[in-house]
Design a protein that fits this description.
Elements: E1 12-24, H1 30-34, E2 37-48, H2 66-76, H3 84-96, E3 103-110, E4 120-127
Antiparallel strand pairs: 1-2, 2-3, 3-4
Amino acid sequence: MSYLLDPRLADCQRIFLTDYAIDVSIGFHAAELAAPQRLLINVDLFVPRSHSTPLNDHRDEILDYDFVRIELARLASSRHFNLQETLIEGIVAICLAQSAVRAVRVSTEKPDVYPDCRSVGIEVFRFRDTV
């Protein structure tokens, strides 16, 4: 996780969603086209403390992480995805559309594809272009 050493994240808190399990229509093999499959999604949002440290203990003072689950579920159910990479790009776009998010790390894993490994997946890390 060398990205955590990036000085652009020094003033950030990490908000995370770990192993969000959701059924997604994803893949290009015949078996994958036949039915949705379980996908594990992990998201790390890097938010400056100035946007994530409440002074009055109010929800409107922070980035509400409920939006991540809601938007991921909406995106995942919106269509069939041939590739994990395509889905990840959509997740990254959703996260970086939040003005408080400086950077995002997203990974997806298919845990049920191969019997001889825990999962197969993809991971990306992106900064907002305007940092």
